[in-house]
């Protein structure tokens, strides 16, 4: 076992946060777990392990959510060999997590099976799905979100809805959880929990989790606190979407109001049941993302941090995690709130959140004794002293925060270890990061590497505990994943922590432009739009309007993103494409292919 999740997120000295580690394989996660532990997390949440129908571009996403495989279309609950790796590799990940003092929260998809033949072009028939038949499903129907029974029994975006009232189905789902437990996981995230009845959780799923010794949290994608509470009352924690929507829509943005935080979300009603978060693979973050993280990482509840947005070695987040574990505990008491400023006291800390466009200061009451000096552990504000009336003046920078305490702990995992920062200037393609690897566990022992932080331009860096003697190098790879292209030349050493880069082994020297061209008919007043698997092509959105160079020939020039897939759409000029090109996707291997024709049959 790792740090022993108990099923309660009660805040006390020693609590920390979950790192949601998605969009990569089990081996990469394994290689980076020492970094996760060093950063100060106490658990990881990983994607579903079962064999699933996976399409890389099954969703239209943006820079905030991610379109790499997720595993939410189950085909075989008994087979844990998947897109992410083998069952043996999953077991190795769990074992290494426990070695690092981390718990593992597994993602369990118990609401549905893979979508049918006519949904999303996925072409999965019931013959492809072992151990289930049509009689194990609810009848196909579209969800009416005004009808609770429809929400629980109809098909979520075409996904075959399992009938949890069937004893056979329940038996298969129990075996699924048992398989996870046998692999040593410590907790379960119930995917799409609001699409299953509360009675299923109170009478079965939560009891199974108790029997198997598993923490559990349900995904209840609903902005109503009372709705969230209904599922929490079945005996599990719940993802606090009520707080998320308040933070995103009402608080942490240029037009927000800090007063909306007062009493917001499940965390202020039932904090021991609230898993708080700022973004995830479904939901983009608020405008003031870092300020939102400062709130959930210092407040009550059990916070979760999303790896696609926050790297493992993020020093700012590690500092907040250290403060959470060592300074902040118990119930939070609001000391001041107006539209821009929110101040609360928790344990030995005073937290000041400022969403205004200029520095703010305010006198607030505190539990600290008169004459006590308080230090801002984030370094953004000066020391301050409690006056004879028990008040203290606290400050925070514009769109920033401060955490005052009598004593500031070390960031990361603590212990007072000296740290070093490795820095390098090296080119990357769009959607890529630099990963630092080397001869120490904190650099994955020459594995895929620890993802660096881009500090501007082509400059990347990572901060680690000083290992003394060290050899290191960089790798290049997909952001949120791991490095797959090595730096050329000799290794670097501890003697030079900011050396000249040796260049990439694949010869990549930076993004250059490329032109995509296609010949396709359009009606008068229409244009051809180019869309694809990269931000410069709108991530499979409406597309970038092409230029008509002659006749039916259209083209668009973009920065070279490396490997990508693309397609065309047709639509009104000056707008976006609404009619798809037929057939399969094109790739970067052919930038001037034959057009597949339009899906509406238009031929000119």
From TrEMBL:
GO terms for biological process: carbohydrate metabolic process. The keyword Hydrolase applies. Residues 584-597 have a biased composition (Polar residues). InterPro entries: A-amylase_C, Alpha-amylase_C_pro, Alpha_amylase, Carb-bd-like_fold, CBM20, GH, GH13_cat_dom, Glyco_hydro_b. Residues 453-493, 563-604 are annotated as: Disordered. It catalyses: Endohydrolysis of (1->4)-alpha-D-glucosidic linkages in polysaccharides containing three or more (1->4)-alpha-linked D-glucose units. Its cofactor is Ca(2+). It comes from the Archaea. Residues 333-408 form the Alpha-amylase C-terminal domain. Residues 417-502, 511-596 form the CBM20 domain. SMART domains: Aamy (SM00642), Aamy_C (SM00632), CBM_2 (SM01065). Residues 16-324 form the Glycosyl hydrolase family 13 catalytic domain. Its EC number is 3.2.1.1. Signal peptide: none annotated. Pfam families: Alpha-amy_C_pro, Alpha-amylase. GO terms for molecular function: alpha-amylase activity; metal ion binding; starch binding. Keywords: Calcium, Carbohydrate metabolism, Glycosidase, Hydrolase, Metal-binding. Belongs to the glycosyl hydrolase 13 family. PANTHER family: ALPHA-AMYLASE. This is alpha-amylase. It comes from Natronoarchaeum mannanilyticum.
